[in-house]
């Protein structure tokens, strides 16, 4: 089916996932029938959609008209025939039990049009087994959304044994049209990508404690502050539900063998109905205790190596089994798990040879199958390579992980590319930004720079507080980190080419300090800006105590820093921080327009104007000296001749920077 032909989508199941998927589809403009087995369930789901759309409109993430339009496109039904009778795509999100799902498909085939594609939102069950009970295995695939669908970017698109490539292409385009990022899972393998990585990690965390080799505290401190994942392993298990992870693990154990034998510690928790946050108690106590309080200083190198070794082995299993490539695995886990880096990259950085050695030692000591190194992993380690090849084989161009950097005409574009972490600024991002600024500066064609944040939630929510806390907050390291931010943003500020920051969404803390380094700032109306560092007991340590006052004046700078309030774009336009406020959908176009206009300006005059203004900040005489010297230099330039000639001839000048 051609993706453009899709108009009507049936979503089966109005529970958490079902109503979330229905909402996302309706927001993308599709007509959606949402079906559940009784009036109460389906009505509940509909009310949840209404509530969620309302929240999005309240937060200005969509307009009120868009919210109303999306709700109008959702029809709640109980009759299956009414739900699927004229559907182009049927997305099934009924309970995660093979027999319930099969029963649904047996009925659906009676009513759905023959050309309709079936997509199941299962998180781990076999697509091939489910497809068998339908009458169209080649038009059947997995379409695994993450919870909550309206906020989570990732959709795993999974091939069954007989799925046609066309079907996968269409469902990927459908996911894209819903604003999601699809990642293809080439083979129907238990847990697909994200669960195949996260669930064994949870199991190994439990085995570490079960065997007496580590405490929950140390494992979570290492996971969060050593490896840098968003949550401790036990904290994550409590968040997701220990029973949920346990059942996926049981299924993997059954399908993939003893390497996935669930740790008894997990079984005990499930038996005791201590399932995590939802029951008030899991590995942490959320009712009578303080929940997950994870120390920053209990990181252990041994635990880190063991967890990374397990992760590397899972990645190798997926790559060797031709389920997915390392970059697809990394993208899926970053988007689905909110990880700052993917497991393949982390394993490469650690060194696959060291991780294989760890696995071999553990295998020899315990005989446990999960420590048997995958052939793919051993081969790569023996060849001195990583999942991404060897460093020596890399090409000359810089590869960025946390940024997207491109040159379009005379404009260099730097996009902060950690949308899954609100484009927060990690140390790695600062280093990359430093490199990107140098590269654009040295690039012969770049005459203006545009700075943006990927995604629709944040320009940047500031320093990545979690990675800052890593290492127990070493003061000497923090001094260096502060200097790194100051210098990098200073480099942007003193770049020869003018810089435009186009701000959409949150622009907080270090994000605002970064924007302060730009020459012009435009922001969408819904943006919220501020220096909230005092709320955290910090100060704006990336130049914020100095640079902001030059733009808004000392009084306003103190107000912004001391109150730590969030300001809207209009207010900061009044303070002189924002040059122009636009509607959300116009921001990017306007940013490009402005950057292109500046790129068409006289480069030498622009460069010296920036230098004179910077030099004169604290020393007007120094600034005036730079200004007069520059004025003299300009007399001798082709650009001056071009400017004057164009003016006299009433034409647009074409400056060349000579
Ligand atoms: C020298 C420089 C110093 C600094 O920059 S210090 C940091 C200054 N920045 C802040 O204090 C902002 C902190 N963040 C927030 O206040 C809120 O977030 C927002 C207002 C930006 C958004 O709120 P909401 O829409 O309710 O989303 P959510 O659930 O709070 O955040 C989504 C995910 O993003 C993570 N996150 C947000 N900001 C940061 C940050 N600065 N460092 C690390 N993570 C951050 C959260 O934890 C969460 O993650 P999960 O989905 O895994 O729970």
Automatic annotation (TrEMBL):
One of its GO terms (molecular function) is long-chain (3S)-3-hydroxyacyl-CoA dehydrogenase (NAD+) activity. Its EC number is 4.2.1.17. Residues 9-188 form the 3-hydroxyacyl-CoA dehydrogenase NAD binding domain. It holds the Pfam family 3HCDH_N. One of its GO terms (biological process) is fatty acid beta-oxidation. Keywords: Fatty acid metabolism, Lipid metabolism, Lyase, Multifunctional enzyme, NAD, Oxidoreductase. This is enoyl-CoA hydratase.
